[in-house]
Design goal:
Length: 297
Amino acid sequence: MKKRKADSPRKPEKRDAGGVTDALTVEKSVAAEERPKPRKMDKKFYEKELARLQIELVKLQEWIRENGLKVVVIFEGRDAAGKGGVIKRITQSLNPRICRVVALGTPTEREETQWYFQRYVPHLPAAGEMVLFDRSWYNRAGVERVMGFCTDDEYREFLRSCPEFERMLVRSGVTIIKYWFSVSDEEQERRFQTRLVTPTKRWKLSPMDIESRSRWVEYSKGKDEMFAHTDIKQAPWYVVEADVKKRARLNCIRHLLTMIPYEDLTPKPIKLPPRQEARGYVRPPFSDQTFVPDSYD
């Protein structure tokens, strides 16, 4: 009797001339199985859902302010994975005095001699604040490790100290939410090429970004080891699949809203008082003022 298709043996793996499995082919096939081809998102649905989520973010902001919460949100991931785009959509309608973004540059000579976490501590939130770190202390486990900007001893000390540092923050009342934005090498390459030809995005393509193209595997290994040491119960990592930017933004914002239980503190409608009457006030003549030229008649 002819066997059913489901019972048929698996096809043998592709082998090279020496009879050894073609590792590259296997690796690509495994990666394809783990990362299905992303579907595009309808623009109208995206804009409608984003607007709804941004209203919820305003409610969350008011809850954080009213209850004196201290919230840290960390955004890490591959270059060109879309971290900045998500941060921009989160903060778009929020009060910058309550929700602020921290994106530190290269450490100064003085900062290089400090305790590693010291330059980040001043940026931590006070009561009623939420701070979004566009890259954070995890630079040591990523770019610094891969590019050789820190020693092996400094790297190993970071892996030991980081979980304790975060546990200490949590014990002191800080909520830590950590996102890792994952993007395929094909999509990252496409975005790099786009940045090359788009004047408003050229600044995003730094020498480090270019160097990362040739160190994809090293960055992957660094991320795996970082997760193994710092994916702790008190501050776990959450991976955002970011090959489709619109979907990644909505997924991340929606997840963020679920991480902090909040209630709607929207104030009652405000009735504006009548404007004060002029009663003898005379404006100075327009000729005494300097106006921006109206160039778009």
